[in-house]
């Protein structure tokens, strides 16, 4: 269940081309169970009509300070009342300027001034407008006023330029808004993780890999970041978006993964090995593509280093968490791995329950015994693991 379920979110949309992305954001929020109330500035309503937002949110859309539909004619007070947060996305340069000045000359600005709930803005504007000293000055002012700023990102802009100022994508805004409400159980902690499969080259176009999708590892990286940790995710080849506020180090082979982990480890209090690391790699990778001339082909394999065991055996070992995906005898294998690698916590699951899919059923093994978590989407399982980890770290 998303932390946004049942939350009342006021979504302000000011007049920028990124307003079209706000429609998708409403859809994501509603899907997660949030109660979304959209307020459009005059400019916002020129880009996307109220009808679109009304259809997506299922709620009345507000644009006018003088709207008589609110019985007491106080939309600017009532909309913010009982809201869990106001998010303005996109927030234009003009909107930020008016926010910094405390202007109250339309419904959205008045609502922001008359609020006693958290205010978050997602800036969206042309690169030069973003870099302009007045905009940066205004940002400093609104941050000092306690406003949270999501983004912007760098990239292609609607105006044809490339640079800073592009609004975060709806999925990322959604993820950050979720993170805003997640308890900061791992604040101040640095977490290094591995995820995904590894790829062990046989020749320039072939290799040995496995069916790990990376979904569990990426969900856990997201949950750790949302819980306030600094997260470095050393990832084998997967096709998943990097979670917000996570530093991803892409690698292919187990040897590269090991090197990247050791590089990232200084200062880390937690190491989590979620990756399905290949236990063996070809003794040597052919420099050129192998030809199918031979009747038989033998590839000699040599063991890969066990990254988790190596980290856990260090004198300055961080708190180490292992994963075990088994096809049978989960309890015996999982507890055996935990003891062999001397891990304070191991997450076990049956391959048939989780690998590749969106849901997972896991059991947590620690010094006090086994703790099954209910079957749930991987995002929720990840939150359960983080809560357990935080308890063990605190103890
Ligand atoms: N692991 C690792 N480096 C390796 C192998 C595994 O860091 N070379 C980590 C995985 O990320 C996971 C845990 O160790 O956290 C899995 O333990 P392991 O006993 O290696 O699992 P399997 O490889 O599945 O073992 P087996 O094939 O013997 O079942």
Explain what this protein looks like in three dimensions.
With 395 residues, the chain is of the alpha/beta class. Helices cover 35% and strands 24% of the residues. It has helices at residues 19-31, 42-47, 50-57, 75-78, 93-101, 107-113, 127-131, 133-144, 170-181, 215-226, 254-264, 307-312, 330-340, 351-354, 378-394; strands at residues 8-13, 35-40, 85-91, 119-123, 148-149, 153-156, 162-166, 190-195, 200-203, 206-208, 230-235, 246-250, 270-273, 280-282, 301-303, 319-326, 345-350, 359-360, 362-366, 369-372, 376-377. The strands form six sheets. It has an eight-stranded mixed sheet, with helices on both faces. The protein has a five-stranded parallel sheet with strand order 2-1-3-4-5, with helices on both faces. The mean pLDDT is 94. Bound molecules: cytidine-5'-triphosphate.
> Mean of residue pLDDT?
94
Based on secondary structure, the structural category is: alpha/beta
> In whole angstroms, how far apart are the ends?
27 Å
Number of helices: 15
- In the predicted model, the low-confidence regions spanning at least 5 consecutive residues are none
Which oligomeric state applies? single chain
Q: What can be said about the biggest beta sheet?
A: 8 strands, mixed
Percent of sequence in beta strands: 15-25%
CATH fold-level label of the largest domain = Rossmann fold
Gross geometry: elongated
Task: Count structural domains.
Answer: 2
Bound molecules: cytidine-5'-triphosphate
CATH H-tier superfamily of the largest domain: CoaB-like
Radius of gyration: 25 Å
Classified by CATH, the class of the largest domain is Alpha Beta
What is the strand tally? 21
Strand order of the largest sheet: 12-11-8-13-16-17-19-20
Percent helix: 25-40%
The CATH architecture of the largest domain can be given as 3-Layer(aba) Sandwich
């Amino acid at each position: 269940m998303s932390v946004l379920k049942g939350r009342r979110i006021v979504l302000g949309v000011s007049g920028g081309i990124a307003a079209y992305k706000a429609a998708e954001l409403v859809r994501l929020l509603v899907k997660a169970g949030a109660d979304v109330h959209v307020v459009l500035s005059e400019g916002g309503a020129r880009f996307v009509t109220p009808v679109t937002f009304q259809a997506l949110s299922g709620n009345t859309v507000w644009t006018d300070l003088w709207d008589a539909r609110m019985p007491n004619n106080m939309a600017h007070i009532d909309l913010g009342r009982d809201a869990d947060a106001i998010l303005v996305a996109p927030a234009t340069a003009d909107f930020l300027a008016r926010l910094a000045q405390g202007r109250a000359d339309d419904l959205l600005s008045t609502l922001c001034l008359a609020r006693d709930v958290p205010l978050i803005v997602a800036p969206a504007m042309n690169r030069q407008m973003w870099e302009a000293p007045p905009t940066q000055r205004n940002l400093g002012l609104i941050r000092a006023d306690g406003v949270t700023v999501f983004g912007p990102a760098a990239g292609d802009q609607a105006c044809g330029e490339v640079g800073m100022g592009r609004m975060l994508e709806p999925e990322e805004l959604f993820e950050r808004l979720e993170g805003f409400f997640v308890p900061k159980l791992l604040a101040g902690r640095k977490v290094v993780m591995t995820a995904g499969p590894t790829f062990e080259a046989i020749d320039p176009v072939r290799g040995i890999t496995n069916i790990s999708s990376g979904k569990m590892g990426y969900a856990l990286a997201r949950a750790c970041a949302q819980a306030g940790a600094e997260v470095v995710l050393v990832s084998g080849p997967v096709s998943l978006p990097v979670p917000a506020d996570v530093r991803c180090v892409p690698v292919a082979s187990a040897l590269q993964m090991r090197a990247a982990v050791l590089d990232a480890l200084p200062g880390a209090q937690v190491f989590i090995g979620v990756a399905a690391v290949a236990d063996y790699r070809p003794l040597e990778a052919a420099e050129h593509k192998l030809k199918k001339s031979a009747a038989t082909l033998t590839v000699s394999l040599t063991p890969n280093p066990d990254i988790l065991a190596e980290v856990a055996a260090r004198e300055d070992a961080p708190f180490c968490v292992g994963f075990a995906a088994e096809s049978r005898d989960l309890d015996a294998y999982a507890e055996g791995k935990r003891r062999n690698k001397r891990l304070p916590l191991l997450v076990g699951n049956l391959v048939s329950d989780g690998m590749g899919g969106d849901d997972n059923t896991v059991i947590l093994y620690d010094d006090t015994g086994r703790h099954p978590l209910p079957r749930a989407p991987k995002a929720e399982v990840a939150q359960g693991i983080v809560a357990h980890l935080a308890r063990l770290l605190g103890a």
